[in-house]
Amino acid sequence: MRKLIIVLLAVVISISSNAAGIISVPVDATDNAKAGVEATIANVKASNMEAFLSLTPEKVKAMTGKKMTFAQKMALKMAQKKAKRAGGEIPKGLYIVLAIFGLAWIAMGVMDNWSGSTWIINLVLTFLFWLPGLIHALVVMKNYY
């Protein structure tokens, strides 16, 4: 009886160790997509931004002759969205809070890399009176988000 239990235990251990080698863990597509997004943005900065932002999966298929997978399409859209916001990275909620406190001109300056005149206009409107600066900040917000 003891030999039978030892043989059964050996068989169970053998089967479980072989089964462990058969099981494979799939690679998480989101990690690959995130890595692809970062690499794509680095390549885009050296090339034409408008062409990249107008790129669609159909155009990619026409150029390469291969259909994009769902993960590749999502990675392309994420890279395009991140490339649009390449200036500053201020969350929308923080932007609204800064606008309420009269500091939206700081957020506009950061988002535009302190170039352009929108942040200067907002600064002047905020100093004239708080309400025009708030209204201007909320109207201009559509340019950033």
Question: What does this protein structure show overall?
Answer:
With 145 residues, the protein is mainly alpha-helical. It contains nine helices and no strands. It is elongated and about 95 Å long.
Give the fraction of residues assigned to helices.
Answer: over 70%
Strand and helix order: HHHHHHHHH
Oligomer: single chain
Number of helices: 9
Low-confidence stretches: 19-25
Write down how many β-strands occur, each being a DSSP E stretch of 2 or more residues. Answer: 0
Could you tell me the radius of gyration in angstroms?
Answer: 27 Å
Largest sheet: none
* Cα-to-Cα separation, first versus last residue: 74 Å
The average pLDDT is 78
Strand content: under 5%
Quickly give the structural class: mainly alpha
So what's the overall shape? elongated
Brief rundown of the structure:
The protein is mostly helical and 145 residues long. The protein has nine helices and no strands.
Question: Secondary structure elements and their pairing?
Answer:
Layout: H1 2-22, H2 29-46, H3 49-53, H4 57-64, H5 70-84, H6 92-100, H7 104-111, H8 118-128, H9 130-140
